[in-house]
Amino acid sequence: MINQVPLLDLGRQYAPLKAELDGAVLAVLGHGHFINGPEVGQFEKAAAAYVGAKHAIGVASGTDALLVALRALGVGPGAEVVIPTFTFFATAGVVSNLGARPVFTDVEADTYNMDPRSLEKAITSKTKAIMPVHLFGQCADMDAILRIAQKHGLPVVEDAAQALSARFGKRAAGTLGALGCFSFFPSKNLGCLGDGGLIVTDDDRLAALVRKLKNHGAEPKYYHELVGYNSRLDTIHAAALLVKLPHLDTWSRKRRENAARYDQLLAGVKVERPVDRGQGYHIYNQYTIALDRRDDLRAHLKTRKIGHEVYYPVPLHLQKCFAGLGYKQGDFPVSERAALRVCSLPIFPEITAEEQEYVAKAVADFAG
Predict the structure, then answer these.
(1) In whole angstroms, what is the distance from residue 70 CA to residue 40 CA?
(2) Dihedral pair phi/psi, residue 337, rounded to 5°
(3) 0.90 cut: is pTM over it?
(4) Domains located in the chain, CATH noted
(5) Helix 248-265 crosses helix 353-367 at what angle (to 10 degrees)?
(6) Edge-to-edge strands of the sheet including 179-183?
(7) pLDDT digit string (tens) for 300-353?
(8) What is the rounded distance in angstroms from the CA atom of residue 256 to the CA atom of residue 272?
(9) Are the CB atoms for 159 and 91 separated by under 8 Å?
């Protein structure tokens, strides 16, 4: 009998891949090339082919992917970057760490992705880039966003940290803008053994600059035209990712099947279920419901030993560290309402139908 369900169980992913993953890690220990070992280049080549990009460059984290991508576009002091306020902190943090100003937009009420109408209002003469987020595994409305970007002559950086294998139309997330950024944090749909990230682009000049920036700005070694960063994808992470990448499509398909099962189980229950716009391929990095009395639901789920999380409880424009930007409560009402109502349920590929039924019954018992 099911009496608890974790939000995520990486052990279930590891078990069937144990021999391959252990072998890959031991191979790195054997050859000793822990930095820029052969597996890094092999993974970059495989990842580029997977998303259909000309270049894929491994970096130390998804956060660094955003940082280096924006730096490659010349974002720095005095510049502005337009981003949604309802997202993970890194999206705004990297802008500030470059000395630039994050300018926030509201999000769409159904997808929680950047609202193109809000984007248009946020652009100023100081805007250097637009950075939409493909939140929860569904691409933002890239047709509308790219039209606005083209109108203003601005590059787009896709924060696709939660969306590797998602698509907008027939194009892979991360390949529609000038640069696309991914995260391999262990909880992502493709996770490594710690922190890791990736930048993809079709632009040869940007790719060369990204490679230079991630390695202290050196080209060749010990010769520095600019000051860069120490941001390399470790060989051991690349080795693990090489083992996992061939399974990603299956894992994404299972997430979609799990989402469909939740949709069926929660039909008629008084909660707002995730909306798939049908503009591409939603991979459900999270299955996020929304309802009033969200915190009471969380207490209820806790008593049932059901893992869950709130992504995200405070919109970025209301974070204390950004108080100096001059935003206030009420500036972005859709995001503010979402922050009070969203709750993400377990949807990892290996979750069983019985576990999902237990989760759905708990939600239904609470919400009616």
Answers:
(1) 23
(2) -65, -40
(3) yes
(4) 10-106+113-246 (3.40.640.10), 248-367 (3.90.1150.10)
(5) 40
(6) 55-59, 197-201, 179-183, 157-159
(7) 999 999 999 999 999 999 999 999 999 999 999 999 999 999 999 999 999 999
(8) 17
(9) yes
